Amino acid sequence: MSELNAGPNAGVETQTTADQRAVRMGKRADMLKQEERLPYPVGVENTTTIQAVLEKHGDLEGSEVKSGDIVGISGRVIHVRKTGKLVFAVLQAGDHSRLQAMLVENAVGEQAFEDFNRLVDIGDHIFVHGEIGTSRTGELSIYADRWEMASKSLRPLPNLHTDLSDEMRMRRRYVDLIVNPEAQRIARLRTRVIQALRDTFRERNYIELETPMLQVVPSGASARSFDTHMNAFDMQVSLRIAPELFLKRAVVGGLDRVFEINRNFRNEGADSTHSPEFTMLECYEAYADYNVMANLAQELIQNAAIAATGSTLVTLDDGTEFDLGGEWKRIDLYESISHYAGEEITPETSAEHLRELARKFEVDVDEETLGHGKLVEEIWEHLIPAEELYNPVFVMNYPVETSPLTRDHRDRPGVVEKWDLYIRGSEIGTAYSELADPVIQRERFVQQAQLAAGGDEDAMRYDEDFCDAMEFGFPPSGGMGIGIDRVLQTITGLGIRETILFPLIKPIEN
Questions:
Q1: Is 485 annotated as a binding residue?
Q2: 160 pLDDT band (50/70/90 cuts)?
Q3: Domain match, 121 and 235 both
Q4: Which of 142, 245, 271, 366 is most buried, with most CB under 10 Å away?
Q5: What is the C-alpha separation between 367 and 374, in angstroms, rounded?
Q6: CATH of the domain at 77
């Protein structure tokens, strides 16, 4: 019985996990034979919750004070302490709120008391009926007059500090949620962030849409797709890499303000800021531009921070504070790269000269396939100091070559009206003044096809139906995409796998 006294994070002690599971399986079998105390009943007679009891009686004080409130509650057993004919069991609700149950042999009956000692393990869900009061030491408790098994746990809970590595926490998130309050806090915080985003859009008269996840032409971003075969139509389809082109079709159809919070899939690397499956927010507004989208992005993220933490001054995982408030800075990409390169770089700067600069600054690039646009971006990313991208900053005005869906800058040839938002060194989102001319759009798609033929695996796919849609008149619009997982990283300071409830992880090979 040593496991029952091991504490709230009881793990392996004198028995292996397999041995403990075998013991618990035996208890399950015994309960099935008894019939009157099933290991997995259809339900129990809950009349309230642990949370409600704490709220109602949290101010009950004194030694062995009775409230007169008779309740039935359920919770997970996380700690058991035995003292003769009295057992103390700490019950934990799903949100980690806790209440002590006191089982006295005379109150519950000799057989029920014996059954509890023989059958109950750490991790079991049990139901307890009785009166709410305080223990001799003044702890709020339920004085049990009966108990039932609600769900028998066949595996022991791990010790958070010694048995549950970061990787195992990701692999068995359900266990992490049980023993680690922080995991639950992040999961609940994520829902508040997403709700805040929806609320901000609702205030701006946007409507939320759903676009296809299976696409014939995976386009709308420069990324590699996950491809599969559709048996019904005997054709190849792909998981979407972005919802952009379908949301724009909706704008063509007269839905002037649209957004989608969607799952995207990109068959690329996985690291602390990238996941092959991730959540993206995309929105489009007719008669807006990238400046309007910058204002909207700032409002969305600031509102999300307030909803999640109560303030735009957030406390990160390492204990430091980070300020998301105020007006966010905007810098020009070409002015920035010129400053740090020590010479003026313009859209007219040749790819050959940019390759020379790449060699000069020891930037690792593929000189054979990269043109002006990608060379500019690669050199800029290499030269820009990290502190320039720490506080929220919009990097404005990108090369036309790397932004095939973006409108040319209204004043500057060779540049498009696009920004990337950086916070704490990570790219959080991007926005455009959207390209509305279907003729130029077809030309851009052709250029992307030529890049793909030259070996660029990330070149954007040609979507003929989308071009047809644009020919029906796509109004001047602003569009934006923001990574939800990265917004969570911004607010919490955690890695991307921490902010995704069930991240994709490579299976362990036997």
A1: no
A2: low
A3: no
A4: 142
A5: 10
A6: 2.40.50.140
